[in-house]
Design brief:
The chain has about 160 residues and is of the alpha+beta class. It contains four helices and seven strands. The chain has a seven-stranded antiparallel sheet with strand order 4-3-2-1-7-6-5, sandwiched between helices. The N and C termini lie far apart (about 100 Å). It comes from Corynebacterium silvaticum.
Length: about 160
């Protein structure tokens, strides 16, 4: 049996397609098993949006000063949205609109955030709502300046030399 160049090329293409499919499946499994097990269920949308529209289901987790949001229908291995706690202005909360009750969990609270000039709404149940608000409130003030210890030591040394 003689294998032609076309058959060899088709074989290579099929192997490449198979490898891509396996990689996508592994990525989906990782995203589903690892990310969802570590985070909190959340529904988020970027504003402006029509009432009851553009909500995206996903998972969020806190990593020190950042909140990472992973879309449910995404295969990207990194977070789809990363919010630094220092960049957030908490705009308040509200109850669900009647049009949103069909889409979101009953009893969820919608929190409005402004992140670097972009407004978001995040819908969470009561326990996760308290966690989000606590995380935001425990952030150090933006006005807090962290002094470099080396610079501070140099200032002290200069003032001691001047006093002599």
């Amino acid at each position: 049996m003689v294998v032609t160049d076309v058959e060899r090329m088709m074989s290579v293409v099929l192997w490449i397609i198979l490898v891509v499919i396996v990689l996508v499946m592994l990525l989906a499994a990782w995203r589903f098993l690892v990310v969802r097990s570590e985070g909190s269920a959340v529904v988020i949308r970027r504003l402006p949006a029509d009432t009851g529209r553009r909500w995206r289901h996903g998972s969020m987790r806190y990593r020190g000063e950042t909140l990472e949001y992973f879309k449910l229908r995404s295969l990207v291995p990194k977070a789809d949205l990363i919010i630094n706690r220092q960049d957030v202005d908490y705009m308040g909360s509200r109850e669900l609109d009647p049009s949103e009750i069909r889409l979101l969990a009953d009893g969820a609270t919608v929190h409005s955030l402004k992140v670097r000039g972009v407004r978001y709404e995040i819908a969470l149940d009561n326990a996760y709502s308290m966690g989000l608000v606590s995380w935001l409130e425990s952030a150090p003030s933006r006005r807090l300046e962290r002094m470099d210890h080396t610079i501070l030591q140099n200032k002290i040394d200069r003032s001691k030399r001047r006093d002599r």
